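Quick one: Carbonic anhydrase/acetyltransferase from Paraglaciecola psychrophila 170, structure tokens please.
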Amino acid sequence: MSIRTYKSISPKLADHCYVDASSVIVGDVECAEHVSIWPLVAARGDVNYIKIGARTNIQDGTVLHVSRTSEANPNGFPLIIGADVTVGHKCMLHGCTLGDRILVGMGAIIMDGVIVEDDVFIGAGTLVPPNKTLKSGYLYKGNPAQQARPLKDSEVAFLKQSALNYIKLKDEYIEETR
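--- reply ---
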């Protein structure tokens, strides 16, 4: 795995994290317990920080990045991902904030300043434009993202189960490398 320091700041990985050897994690990136980072993920905390919550999984080919500070935006946009989040394959998360228990479908793009509340499904291929807020308890899909319908109870339950499934899988991968 490529975990690299940038400007004297090194990524911080809590206990029981898994980072695939083909992924690149650079700079100010913090991963809580049981986070899994799968093949070919790039997480670049160079001009701002990235924080990933407990039991979250970032799947293959996803890009995680941030926006720098500026006169117009003094804090820039860090990337903050909550707990029990499943980020599907080949997503782009850029300077946004995701709450807890979210599923980001494959190929989704979530842009600067977006806030995604807890318990949300984002459909595959969805584009969430800058500064939009996705309210809790809904499926969003489309380009640009639109609220499609309320989540069913079974879908809300699946959000937590998806995270638990990936904890089991990452533990199997860790065991294989011992």
